[in-house]
Amino acid sequence: MTNTMFNSCIQACSNCALVCEACASACLREENVQAMARCIELDRDCADMCALAARLMSRQSELAKEFCALCAKICRACGEECAKHQMDHCQECAKACMNCAEECERMAV
Amino acid sequence: MTNTMFNSCIQACSNCALVCEACASACLREENVQAMARCIELDRDCADMCALAARLMSRQSELAKEFCALCAKICRACGEECAKHQMDHCQECAKACMNCAEECERMAV
Amino acid sequence: MTNTMFNSCIQACSNCALVCEACASACLREENVQAMARCIELDRDCADMCALAARLMSRQSELAKEFCALCAKICRACGEECAKHQMDHCQECAKACMNCAEECERMAV
Amino acid sequence: MTNTMFNSCIQACSNCALVCEACASACLREENVQAMARCIELDRDCADMCALAARLMSRQSELAKEFCALCAKICRACGEECAKHQMDHCQECAKACMNCAEECERMAV
Known about the structure:
4 helices; elongated; Four-helix bundle copper-binding protein (chains A, B, C, D); YHJQ-like (chains A, B, C, D); Csp_YhjQ (chains A, B, C, D); homotetramer; 109 residues
């Protein structure tokens, strides 16, 4: 990756996107899917936002900073929801989301 | 990431997607953009394919293996084109594409 | 849209992608989410595949035909699952998927 | 499409995303690619933003309105750049972008 300025945020977003995808799929395989509906909903948005954030930063897009500000919001919302659930996939996702939120907030300034 | 089976291929695809985005943007800033047109075109397709491959594997989608077979093709095409150009971004992209092609081929079997 | 050759397939894919997104979200709001888990899973894959199919065709990508062949498969799988459920969002999605499968199959030849 | 509230904005975004993809590809085939570099760069960002805007609205995501506000900005930037170029693909793209910007601005309020 050549964009050293954005590098740690790109990695955090790229990782968070995939952890959210995995979390949504694992939630769908839980016995009580009902209880995971909100988590799945946020995972989907968070995955899409983080994936595009990583893309825009890799491009050094002029949109990147403003996008990161919005991305941080969904990361926090998703991380807070995931943190409520004890399954490993949700706990792992909560950590990835919170880390990504911090990276995006730092980028957005 | 919980999908250990797919793990190294997910990482290769995720990395390749972003390196292709960065390469396309760097190509657009070259003095002779004309010479890079084919490279940019392939970078765009390769970035999209690799990003979706990483997503599908993270989801453990039943489509993942067949998708990886197709993804390997565009990675090879993009890697071969990039390898022709001496700029760092193209050489780095060629490496990421070839590595990703191998990982996807292994996954596709 | 300038790609008249691909035009009706692009429209079918573009529409199917969004109908699948709407169907997944509506499924998550059903009382018995459990029963919709498979539908949501397929909706996610189908939405991503159709969205990328539309993109590749709009670009006149050399990958478009092979991609459409794979896209048709997930459209059929998603359409068959949706057809089993009586809710409007699933019935509408089944129709969009089947129409898209046919368009993609025609394109793939 | 079941989201009547968002419907015309979803259609504008979905169309704009694909017109931008087509415009970027057509720009890459122009004799003077150099002159189109900025246009291609904006087309890529605008295509990605509009595609995700359409997705989020189709999901009735709580992020949709804020996302549309940001999407409107890139649509305007891309539309203004495209409007400078006389080729049909750029003129068509300028129109799609400006229409999409207006729809997104209306949605964002």
